[in-house]
Amino acid sequence: MVDLRNVSTVTEFILVGFEKSYPSTRTLLFTLFLALYGLAMAMNGLIIFITWTDPRLNSPMYFFLGHLSFLDVCFITTTIPQMLIHLVVKNHTVSFASCLIQMYLVFGVGVAECILLAFMAYDRYVAICQPLSYAQIMSRQVCVRLVGTSWFFGMINGIFLEYMSFRNPFCRGNHVENFFCEAPIVIALSCGDPLFSLKVIFADAIVVLLSPMVLIVTSYARILTSILGRASSSGRGKTFSTCASHLTVVVFFYTSAMFSYMNPRSTHGPDKDKPFSLLYTIITPMCNPII
């Protein structure tokens, strides 16, 4: 047990990130990540511009796609610019408040994207299985409400997870073994009972990740049943090609998120955390527009 009266208040964290790498390696990583960040911003920005300005793309599928790109822009900007700065400067410290804000944005935007991907699967189900009622079911008003719901639950869930992450003072150092303030790593530095907070976040991840996944699996199971029962071979190919891109995005995003937040911390380590963190913070947002 830690005597909390003798615990010094942590006012900043040190993001270890890639500081142990050789200078030449950091230069290479900076060039690579800067290129990936610029590519992701350009492609997502282009999709946002096209889907929100071209009247020919005034359909629910493109409406959701534009908001998915907007979420990707928010998500990637939350972490990558800071990492790029830390690759070229020696000072890797971030204030307590900056870490708190960054973690909240990662939580909020990440959860919103999970829910939005589920709504996109539902949109595909209605379009393919109930085409005659599609315009009525997926009206503009309904689409706006679905997007608003994803943002609302993302922000509310972010407040809850933020409280669980910072409810205890910190007494196990301030070195974060990653390039951004990732919740499980930060919680492990806290006093009291960090295991309780980790269990709560694990349970929350099960609900947040698996609930939308159930909707996605159910939607595509019904789509598969429908097209196998009544579609021609050409119609099946068209349907599969339409849904394959969304499923690919789902697999990328959910696989990395599940590893980061639904695995026991004993199986984690800097060498294992960073690749998956890079996958869902920069690779997935960059690949979404391409897919």
TrEMBL record:
Predominant subcellular localization, coarse grouping: membrane
Database matches in Gene3D superfamilies: Rhodopsin 7-helix transmembrane proteins
Example of a GO MF term: olfactory receptor activity
Cell location: Cell membrane
G-protein coupled receptors family 1 profile domain sequence ranges: 43-291
Keywords from the UniProt entry: Cell membrane, G-protein coupled receptor, Membrane, Olfaction, Receptor, Sensory transduction, Transducer, Transmembrane, Transmembrane helix
Pfam families in the record: 7tm_4 (PF13853)
SUPFAM superfamilies (UniProt xref): Family A G protein-coupled receptor-like (SSF81321)
GO annotations of cellular component type: plasma membrane
Membrane topology type: Multi-pass membrane protein
Transmembrane residue ranges: 28-50, 62-89, 101-122, 142-160, 200-221, 242-262
Coiled-coil residue windows: none
InterPro entries reported in the protein's UniProt record: GPCR_Rhodpsn, GPCR_Rhodpsn_7TM, Olfact_rcpt
PANTHER family from the UniProt entry: OLFACTORY RECEPTOR (PTHR26453)
Family per record: Belongs to the G-protein coupled receptor 1 family.
Function: Possible taste receptor.
Protein name: Olfactory receptor
